Amino acid sequence: SLLTQLNLLRKRRLFTDVVLWAGGRDFHCHRAVLASCSRYFEAMFSGGMKESQDSSVDFHDSLHPEVLELLLDYAYSARVLINEENAESLLEASDMLQFHDIREASAEFLERNLHPMNCP
What we know:
This is Ectoderm-neural cortex protein 1-like protein. Residues 16-84 form the BTB domain. Keywords: Kelch repeat, Repeat. One of its GO terms (biological process) is ubiquitin-dependent protein catabolic process. This protein has 6 helices and 3 strands. A 3-stranded mixed β-sheet has the order 2-1-3. The chain is mainly alpha-helical. The chain has a single domain (2-118), classed as Potassium Channel Kv1.1, Chain A (2-Layer Sandwich), CATH 3.30.710. The longest helix is centred in the middle third of the chain and has 13 residues, at 65-77. The protein has helices spanning 2-11, 31-37, 39-46, 65-77, 87-97, 100-112; strands spanning 18-22, 25-29, 56-58. A hairpin with a 2-residue loop joins strand 1 and strand 2 (25-29). Helices cover 52% and strands 11% of the residues.
């Protein structure tokens, strides 16, 4: 499929046109793929923002690298595994980066798994 081929290109760092940084890790990506699943990236890359011309975007420590990796894997595969360990982090990151499908799925996961033992 197209996403599979784009993911292979990403993993080989071919034709990537932006590098995302989080927690000291770098992630080479394609702007078009990011913009297609995130309004945050669509606005960043298409508007007059400085990042629309920059070759990298640094999230510093505002985004955990493992969570960003999950979001990017979703962007390139349309799949993500949401579990008890990552649901809350995915919800926060997907809300910040406007990955609406993951935000909804994470919120639904958390709602389904709420019970008196895990609520303060």
